[in-house]
Amino acid sequence: MTNSTRIRPFRIDIPQADLDELNARLANTRWPEELSGVGWKYGTPSSYLKQLTDHWRSRYDWRAEEARLNRHPQFLFEHEGRRLHFWHIRSEEAEATPLLLIHGWPFGDFSAMIEPLIDPRSHGGGPAFHLVIPTLPGFGFSGLTRQPGEGATDRSAELIAALMAELGYDRYLAQGGDAGSFIAPQLGRIDTEHVIGVHVNDPITIPSWDDDGSGYDEADRANLAKLQQWGSDSTSAYAGAHGRSQTLANGLNDSPAGLLSWVIDVVHTYIDPALELPEEAMDRDRLLTCVSILWFTGTIGSSMLLYSESEQWGAELPNSGVPTGVAVFAGGSSIRAIAEQQNTVVHWARYDRGGHFASMEAPDLLIKDLRIFVTGLS
Fold first, then answer.
1. What confidence tens digit (pLDDT) does each residue in 102-111 have?
2. Which domains does the chain have, with CATH numbers?
3. Which strands sit side by side in the sheet containing 195-201, from one edge to the other?
């Protein structure tokens, strides 16, 4: 890494008082009554949430998770009054290519992908990568955004491009899901001469209100119908509610059980549809670590700002010409025709396992697809 004065080492060290306060708040949760026999129809069941919060309070070990997170080098990047937290994990392979891994809302955990990507010789072979894993502005250890607009996906892309330049990487790849599926292609648009490839999972392809599917193939027409249904039922309500992020923050920043309830409802909605509970799709403690970070940093409200501040949602975006690979997982509704209008898609794969949170649900498949895409670029 370059001897930058704008980058300084960082280590996670949550004060014990914060842990004690979290446990006290969880223990004193005022639980509501719930209807019987409705499952997840009206959102996160209180009966399920009680079990999960009990695990969070009584059996989950933050200090063990903190030590795990601190095993890899972390840094803070200061740029034009903005701060970006990131992991920077270099491979020992001489020919390794720099790769950005970009999360979405409410979080992303790439820990299961790190060793296979930096040390492919020990994990099935394939290309090696130097990893840069940023925490998006407004999330976690990047801290609160301070000015309107700083949570927008295009502004995040600008900050990440500045980071890669500061690190001295002239050529790099970008991978992302959810909001990351906007940011990674945007890097291809604003940093075209340095981005050699973009890979996205379950890219968000938003049809226009009058899109009737003309010219789409059967798969795209089915996904269009799914997206139109999504837009008209309650499962999409959280996205609109995030436009009132301060209203939500006033409650979720005060109640860890409330925060977990809100986040877990979204997670449950978008995991592999063949599975019933979030912990069937991903490691329960990894999930609680992601929620704990939002709690300890007080960033749940600012994390939502990308919904209201990002102009890329539903916009007609220009094609950068950068080669792009796409992986769609079980339950994904990406419309290929829309993705191909905005990106130079050279690889498209669909998997019948995993879900929207691919790096946590099916990291093996995401690694496999990324390797296929990157190998095809050479």
1. 999 999 899 9
2. 7-377 (3.40.50.1820)
3. 7-10, 74-79, 82-89, 129-135, 97-102, 172-177, 195-201, 323-328, 344-350
